[in-house]
């Protein structure tokens, strides 16, 4: 590496302090399938840090569908959707997803991140306005950076602030409000009915990022617009397959015209290889299961409500969550790393969320539920969380939600 860049890389010390304390929690190697129990360093660990909300990543029917797709189509498409990378199953999945979320058409991208990058940057031009919740996902923020439009942020889920920000924008400008359906760290739900009202009043379009809402809320888990019965008021519905859908990839759904536009403008779609056959087939199989076994979603919510009850009874501060994503606030970076480490040693996998991802007085442990957890596993995790708090002399402080 030449000097200039080499010096910068050599000066990178961000992770050192936490590594020196033996508390580095990232890039942990898992030696098994992503399930409620995983194997790490040869030992069983209970998984409470997965986005596999419906617990489908190790489902025999989905694995079988993936294997059959490899047999029929091979392992990769060796090209973008635009050119040689469109298979019949890509088109089948697009039709299925459009019907699932209640839109005319959909198009697949290779990851959810690429959906937000490509869609936001291709729709908005100079003099347009992109209006974001301050807690929107990194892929939405990066999409805004690729777009030539101006970006305005409103305080998290604060509809007064959104109104204030919208009221200052030129009446005749194109405006797109983009928000997470369920916020990925806090677990709260977007205030969609109020956003729809404001969008009507100020002439804005709406895009919902349903990464964490698909398979979780709405009819058959079809997302936040369905949950509020506002599908016709949301212009664009974005989803990923890396969470409830047990695979990898993403999609955007909207009117035929909008999808046609995106297919010919979104650079992260046109200049990137298409979803692999096994990934597509897995999503089709996952969708079959989600649509035919709605009891899985009921079980996810039973688990979520049970975990919330136990956590609240124990006095933990879990913020305003309304979903299987439960933040356990610690509000101190070092203690968050320490508690994560104690839990890990005691066989519980959770994710620490510290600054700069959140302000340091909001650092938290992200505790997430799966439909396949048992009540006994949830009890064990909450007990161990309580013990870990005690070990670092932190008292769970009761904050009502
Ligand atoms: N949007 C949100 C809200 C997310 O949480 C994520 C992933 N964590 C993405 C988009 C990106 O999805 P993917 O993993 O499919 O790239």
UniProtKB/TrEMBL annotation:
Cofactor names: pyridoxal 5'-phosphate
Stretches assigned to the Aminotransferase class I/classII large domain: 44-385
Keywords: Ligase, Pyridoxal phosphate, Transferase
Pathway: Lipid metabolism
Domain of life assignment: Bacteria
Listed GO MF terms: ligase activity; pyridoxal phosphate binding; transferase activity
One Pfam match: Aminotran_1_2
Family: Belongs to the class-II pyridoxal-phosphate-dependent aminotransferase family.
Protein name: 2-amino-3-ketobutyrate CoA ligase
Source organism (scientific name): Pedobacter cryoconitis
């Amino acid at each position: 590496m030449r000097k200039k860049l080499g010096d910068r890389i050599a000066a990178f010390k961000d992770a050192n302090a936490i590594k020196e304390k033996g508390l580095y929690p990232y890039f942990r190697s898992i030696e098994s399938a992503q399930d409620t129990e995983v194997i790490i360093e040869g030992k069983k660990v209970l998984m409470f840090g997965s986005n596999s909300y419906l617990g489908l990543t190790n489902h025999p029917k989905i694995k079988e569908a993936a294997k059959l797709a490899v047999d029929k189509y091979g392992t990769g498409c060796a090209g973008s959707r635009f050119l040689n990378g469109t298979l019949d199953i890509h088109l089948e999945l697009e039709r299925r997803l459009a019907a699932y979320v209640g839109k005319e058409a959909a198009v697949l991208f290779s990851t959810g991140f690429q959906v937000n990058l490509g869609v936001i940057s291709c729709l908005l031009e100079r003099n347009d306005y992109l209006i974001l919740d301050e807690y929107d996902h990194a892929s939405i923020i990066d999409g805004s950076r690729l777009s030539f439009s101006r970006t305005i942020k409103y305080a998290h889920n604060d509809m007064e602030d959104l109104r204030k920000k919208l009221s200052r924008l030129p009446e005749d400008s194109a405006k797109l409000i983009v928000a997470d359906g369920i916020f990925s760290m806090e677990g709260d739900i977007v205030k969609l009915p109020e956003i729809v009202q404001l969008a009507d009043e100020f002439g804005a379009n709406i895009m919902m990022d349903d990464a964490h809402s698909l398979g979780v809320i709405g009819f058959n888990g079809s997302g936040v617009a369905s949950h509020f019965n506002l599908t016709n008021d949301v212009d664009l519905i974005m989803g990923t397959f890396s969470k409830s859908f047990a695979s990898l990839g993403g999609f955007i759904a909207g009117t035929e015209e909008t999808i046609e536009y995106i297919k010919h403008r979104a650079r992260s779609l046109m200049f990137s290889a298409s979803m692999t056959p096994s990934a597509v087939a897995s999503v089709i199989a996952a969708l079959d299961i989600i649509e035919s076994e709605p009891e899985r979603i009921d079980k996810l919510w039973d688990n979520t409500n049970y975990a919330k009850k136990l956590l609240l009874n124990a006095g933990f501060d879990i913020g305003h969550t309304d979903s299987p994503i439960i933040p356990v606030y610690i509000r101190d970076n070092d203690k968050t790393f320490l508690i994560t480490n104690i839990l890990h040693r005691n066989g519980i996998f959770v994710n620490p969320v510290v600054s700069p991802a959140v302000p340091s007085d909001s650092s938290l442990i992200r505790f997430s539920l799966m439909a396949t957890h048992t009540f006994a596993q949830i009890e064990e995790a909450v007990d161990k969380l309580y013990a870990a708090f005690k070990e670092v002399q932190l008292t769970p402080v009761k904050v009502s939600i």
